[in-house]
Amino acid sequence: MRTTLNLADDALIAAQTLARRQQISLGEAVSELVRRGARAPAGPTARSADAPLRGRFALLPRRDEAITAEHIRALMEREGL
Q1: Residue 64 carries which DSSP code?
Q2: Which of 25, 29, 66, 76 could form a disulfide with 15 if both were Cys (CB 3.0 to 4.6 A apart)?
Q3: In angstroms, what CA-CA distances link 49 with 45, 57, 67?
Q4: pLDDT, one tens digit for every residue, the chain (81 residues)
Q5: Which residues of 47-79 are buried (b: 16+ CB within 10 A; e: fewer)?
């Protein structure tokens, strides 16, 4: 089905990355990500604290604070990157 979506920047990047990795269209990637989200258990207890890696990245626990570009820049400065 053809439709128009307004995606947040991070959601678009995730979909584009998946599309490139799997060599599928952007629409197919968005559909796959929506299906994954629909299958995922809901609520804060859905994932244990010692969950395995997903892909190459470890999942961090949920926080009440959004990580901003300023947080990243400060950390990179502190780490000398």
Answers
A1: S
A2: 29
A3: 9, 14, 19
A4: 888 989 988 889 999 999 999 999 999 999 999 998 888 776 655 445 455 566 777 776 777 878 888 888 988 888 888
A5: eeeeeeeeeeeeeeeeeeeeeeeeeeeeeeeee
